[in-house]
Amino acid sequence: MKVHCGFMRNGGAEMSPLDVKYVKKCKFVVASGIFDGYDVPHQPSNISRRSKKLFCFLMVMDEVSLKFIRKNVTIKEDSAGGQWVGIWRLILLKHPPYDEPRRNGKVPKILTHRLFPQAQYSIWIDGKMELIVDPLLILERYLWRGKHTFAIAQHKHHRSIYEEADANKRRKRYARPLIDYQMKIYRYEGMEPWSIKKNTVSDVPEGAVIIREHTALSNLFSCLWFNEVNLLTPRDQLSFGYVVYRLKGLFKFYMFPNCEYNSLFVLHPHTREHSSKIEWVKSRDELKGNGSSMIEGRGGLGFWTPYPGNLDLVVLPPVARTSKAG
């Protein structure tokens, strides 16, 4: 079986030879990312001497973010030419594959094993997060203690992807008709709303932290998850549960309580509010004619590829709005 996963050489999201050489030594990785200058690196605290020697702390970013950080934070350069902000080694991704910064951010987040192929373990944290727990303790608590290979937090408010999709539309996280289109595809392919009859704690994760052992199955899941993000909306919380469903129980993971997630990090606000034209679209008609300029040119191409089933007959499950914050 062949699975597309990421990009070919010269296809986008490329690191410099200097950074490629550096990450080859990284067996244990704490990774984060900043795109379009929405954050600055936050220094982890409570890191043990052992973890400082064992882990590579890699901050992936685009050129816009690197320029922004240079203006606002002191960057030091080592003798080999590597750039550092405190404990973070800055990793520049040249030639971003997408127009939308949020979609570009999914490359290091989900395809961590592709960017850092020598890594045996990785902890991903979003750029707005400040790590306050030693990463070795995180691996012990969420992977080694229960013999898990993949751990992610449960969403604070939602368990069904259809609830999460409704919240995304209300909060203008992406074009409303395209979110509906994605949900109709998943419903057509048999994805049921979450219920206690399912074998999972929830279908919706809190995607700001992902803890992984890079096993073959964990890597396969990440590839399939990224393919959904590439094909449809960049809202990875919508596609996580669908990929789990399609693997039909083969992929085992640990979904830990949201209250524990909040004990691992301090959440910082973005440097500015994110907004893009595609997020404000309310109907497909707005994407026609002059409105076609709002369509992403290099991502979400599944929306414009004919789907083999009749989605007009699909009725999405009703959603009960249980949280104002959702």
Structure description:
By secondary structure, the chain is of the alpha/beta class. It has a domain at 17-160 and 202-274: Spore Coat Polysaccharide Biosynthesis Protein SpsA, Chain A. The chain contains twelve helices and eleven strands. The protein has helices spanning 17-23, 49-54, 63-72, 101-104, 106-110, 112-115, 135-144, 161-170, 176-188, 216-231, 236-246, 258-261; strands at 28-34, 55-61, 76-77, 83-85, 88-92, 121-125, 129-131, 150-154, 205-213, 254-256, 265-267. The strands form two sheets. The protein has a nine-stranded mixed beta sheet with strand order 3-4-5-2-1-6-9-8-10, sandwiched between helices. Helix 8 (161-170) runs antiparallel to helix 11 (236-246). The longest helix is centred in the C-terminal third of the chain and has 16 residues, at 216-231. The protein is globular. The relative contact order is 0.17.
Throw out a few tags for this protein.
alpha/beta, Spore Coat Polysaccharide Biosynthesis Protein SpsA, Chain A, 12 helices, two-stranded antiparallel ribbon, globular, 326 residues
